[in-house]
Design goal:
There is one protein chain. This protein is an all-alpha fold and about 210 residues long. The protein folds into two domains: about 1-60, Arc Repressor Mutant, subunit A (Orthogonal Bundle), CATH 1.10.10; about 60-205, Tetracycline Repressor, domain 2. It contains nine helices and no strands. It has helices at about 5-35, 40-50, 55-60, 65-85, 90-110, 110-120, 130-155, 165-180, 195-200. The termini are far apart. The mean pLDDT is about 85.
């Protein structure tokens, strides 16, 4: 077998392993969201992925690591979408609306993820809350950076916004909507609050 054949074979093997790992994560996320972290088992995840339990352990040391990777992957996808919004060349008000719309749509479409986070932070699972907290710190940092950038641009037109305050206030509003949605306390879907949220932030500058 020549060098090119060995390289092609190694590349194919790496792709197969990556695909298998993603399939395991997909199955784990489905099981965690269906029955919760505490009730999920590696056997259930293996059955959902259609692999043996031993195969799961070839990729992950246990349920703790697997769950942490599921959360990390969701966070990476979220941050990637936020970065896509901020990278688009459009007026700052349109970026702000896109950011709020994306967040409230995500909250509405992923209630199971919100439930998992509640389970982790309000249950006594040794070491897990601190792991997830580190990952959520990454989300908060990205949100702060993005919102500050928006309002620094806004102040180039009209210097009346406080970017630091906005970077605290807006995520807080969205988080509150998410919490109340999860707890069943809203009489409307999260996306129904998009226009009103923008009105509160922008005041008379907002045009629906």
């Amino acid at each position: 077998m020549n060098g090119n054949s060995v390289s092609l074979s190694a590349g194919r093997k790496e792709r197969e392993l990556a695909q298998r790992r993603e399939a395991i994560l997909d199955a784990a996320q489905e099981v965690f969201e269906s029955v919760g972290y505490a009730s999920a088992s590696m056997a259930q995840i293996a059955a959902k992925a259609e692999f043996g339990v031993g195969t799961i352990y070839q990729f992950f040391q246990g349920k703790h690591e697997l769950f942490s990777e599921v959360i990390a992957r969701s966070i990476e996808r979220y941050v990637s979408s936020i970065n896509h919004i901020v990278s688009e060349k459009r007026p700052w008000k349109e970026q702000l609306e896109a950011y709020i719309r994306y967040n409230l749509t995500w909250i509405e479409q992923h209630p199971e993820f919100h439930r998992l986070i509640y389970e982790i932070f309000y249950s006594q699972i040794p070491g897990m809350a601190s792991r997830i907290l580190d990952q959520f710190r990454k989300i908060r940092q990205e949100n702060i950076r993005f919102i500050k950038e928006i309002f620094h641009r806004a102040n180039e037109e009209d210097p009346r916004y406080d970017p630091d305050l906005m970077s605290l206030m807006i995520p807080g509003m969205l988080h509150s909507i998410g919490d109340n949605w999860f707890l069943g306390l809203l009489n409307k879907k999260p996306t129904a609050y998009i226009s009103r949220t923008l009105q509160l932030i922008l005041g008379e500058d907002y045009r629906d």
